[in-house]
DNA sequence: GTAGGGTTAG
């Protein structure tokens, strides 16, 4: 142990012999002072020195002493699991304590699966059987991994052993089943715990909260009181969280006073839980008041406040909170990114992501990437999306199901279905969300048949479809006119797959029937629905009426829709389009007056196009773009070229715009999607497809024009509208004009 | 000498 560059410990030399008359002949304790030094270690290097000394003195081969070394290397503040493992592997016959310590350390590490491997090794190599300490550790590893089969196996082993009524182990199992989302099993274990303690109750309450059953959590809280088990701070954290889910501020306030009245110790975590409850119940005032009086705050407190302000849409105050935060935790960045992304401000979300990159104050994590990818999807911005994909690869992020789903969604919504499929096939583990995202991607691109095939593949892979899967597959059938197939699947939902159809599924069915011209059937379907039709149901019927020019039914659907949602501008626009299509001009102007009088405005059509990573936005008749002259010149050229090949503008689409001030700008030529396409033609190379995203449904005339442009200019155009993709190539569109 | 339950971001 010559050159040591670290603070060197002064080793006690040989233990002092107290006095010659009472010589300590007990050879079990000759090096005891060295052992007590282990506890005083403050760095790994010091520990290594002791380890070396232990090897030299032979103390290392005393199982008790070796276990002490394991404990410190695996669990201290300066611990190194890899070092602990090296030490462990050198011990000839580790005792059960050492095994347990290693499993414990792995279970709470970033790689809990190693805890399970060590457990298996233990079964094979250790003379002793796992004990009441082993199981809580290894079950915790299974919970972390949500390894439901493995955990179930541990449960079986426990039941066969003499530990079947150990409350610690049973509590661990409740927690385990809760984290796997298996509430039934969690509850079964809970009910069978012979002497429940407060942790048993807390674990089950938490399981209910996690499993989105806040009412059951409250119920258990009451039952616990009746059984005279005193709730503690952890109980309250769980119940407050349930309260946030219910957004029940009254009950939340009652819980806060309950905490006071019962003298439950309030620590930082409990304060944070109260803060979170106030925020989720929409009372930022209560949250602020509590926050200002909290004696101690951590990154969770700050992040919760930040979340509170963004929920209220108060981005300025959120910005102030963010700037006041003592350190820029990644969670805080994530709140900002996802709040923009979820409130329809994807550009702002990506701007924050960019700032994070520049500032380097925190390292993006999986949540950051998922939210940012979703922002790219919304924008249809494939360049930043690709950049993030490369980033994921370079940083060595494991493609878990969350990230895979986001990547598939991003590529599909940015028009690159092939790349989405590539990602899909590149991963081995596909959960129901990954499959559903792929089915949605196929649906969006008009590949309904393929979507159905993927759905069957998914069933073969033993993945159980959920409500999202059915929304996507029904949407696929609807977009591709596969009425028989869609109807068949719809009727199988509940009896075969146990998924109760929701309003979205009914809306898909109305859309599917209506689109294919079976309007009367669609109406009957609505009338027979077991749930009350919502605005979206009538909206789907109205859309179908527009497609097939059925004025009478349209008026009925529209009046129903406006009963439910009086300010739905879409309804007015659709109805006025139907009137225009059927030459009912007096009705068009009547509707226009109603809209004007009630101050209902049409959502302005807006198309965006991404060129070299920059997103350009166009409104109808937009003059604000720096290259606007060139764009209009190009539009004239297009108009001339198309005229030559016999194109006649379809004037009925003019009447999408019912407001007077829009009248001047109504020329079809000035629709936002045409402006964006023209800009794409002058600013990108011919080999590059033109990618346009429109916020509304694409206009019929623009659809015809885009088809012709794709032929005349030999350019691929990818146009995403509110509902689907249109892939124009050689004069045809991927939607086969069924949209 | 070992244990189980807790707050934020998708």
From TrEMBL:
UniProt repeat feature PPR, residue ranges: 166-196, 197-231, 267-297, 298-332, 431-465
Annotated GO biological process: RNA modification
Ranges that cross the membrane: none
InterPro entries in the record: DYW_dom (IPR032867), E2_motif (IPR046849), E_motif (IPR046848), PPR_At4g14850-like_plant (IPR046960), PPR_rpt (IPR002885), TPR-like_helical_dom_sf (IPR011990)
Keywords linked to the UniProt accession: Repeat
Statement: the UniProt record of this protein carries the keyword Transcription regulation: no
Keyword field contains Repeat: yes
UniProt-listed SUPFAM superfamilies: TPR-like (SSF48452)
Residue intervals of the DYW domain: 646-739
Gene Ontology MF, one: mRNA binding
A UniProt-annotated Pfam family: PPR_2
Family: Belongs to the PPR family. PCMP-H subfamily.
Official protein name in the record: DYW domain-containing protein
Organism from which the protein derives: Ficus carica
